[in-house]
Amino acid sequence: MEERLQKIIARYGLASRRKAEEMIAARRVRVNGNTAGPGDTADELVDVIEVDGVRLRREPERVYLMLNKPRGYVTTLQDEKGRKTVAELVKDCGVRVYPVGRLDLNSEGLLLMTNDGAFANRLMHPSAAVEKEYLVWLSGYYAGCEETIRKPIEIDGRRTSPAEVSLVKAEGQVALLRITIHEGRNRQIRRLCEQANVTVTRLRRIREGALQLGELGVGRWRPLTAQEMEQLGV
């Protein structure tokens, strides 16, 4: 649909309508390579509109997704080893989105994905200290190993914060723990368990901040709700 150029320019946030009229009068606007004049119209979906030689482009719609990542998928968009990637699971969302943080190949659960780089960087920055809660299945369990798992360890030259650890259930040497950390360091949960000489057999992230994985099916994704986005400060 054709509209007055000054209205289109104002909608893109470059200037007010009055200022846009002045830009057109100053011969600073072109449509399909031709200098525009006062009163000219254009269709932003069809025509190439330039201001000072720079084409008007809309910012892509910001998309925020929650994925229930299965085991056996790498948290990347491409993999040089040919392994399955989380990008394959969200390819029908309509835009190119990126993982916020990581879950290793054999871990599963809640993974945020977005095309909003500023949001992703803010959420991943250590100062954000976003709580991440996991269900962790163990073999080699023994009473009291929880205390060792809680203790900080050094990863990449920095000490981790103490973890919160509670026992959900245990049957002999097989147990299920609930572990909450405030960072997302490389293989942090698995390393905490290694220091207690217990083995992680399954690891699933069920919460990140106020976001709960809930009943979202394995390998499925959904957009974040308006309430969830508000909780994340989007």
Helix amount: 10-25%
Summarize model confidence as the mean pLDDT: 91
Q: Residue ranges: pLDDT <50 for 5 or more in a row?
A: none
What characteristic shape results from the CA principal axes?
elongated
Helix and strand composition category: alpha+beta
**Beta-strand content estimate:** 25-35%
Q: State the distance separating the first and last CA atoms.
A: 31 Å
Topology order in helix (H) and strand (E) letters: EHHEEEEEEHEEHEHEEEEHEEEH
Count of distinct strands: 17
Work out the helix count: 7
Q: What can be said about the biggest beta sheet?
A: 9 strands, mixed
* Overall radius of gyration: 25 Å
Report on the structure:
This protein has 234 residues and is α+β, with helices and mostly antiparallel strands. It contains seven helices and 17 strands. Strands 7, 8, 9, 10, 13, 14, 15, 16 and 17 form a nine-stranded mixed sheet that branches. The protein has a four-stranded antiparallel sheet with strand order 3-2-5-6, with no helix packed on it. Helix 1 crosses helix 2. The radius of gyration is 25 Å and the shape is elongated. It starts with a strand and ends with a helix.
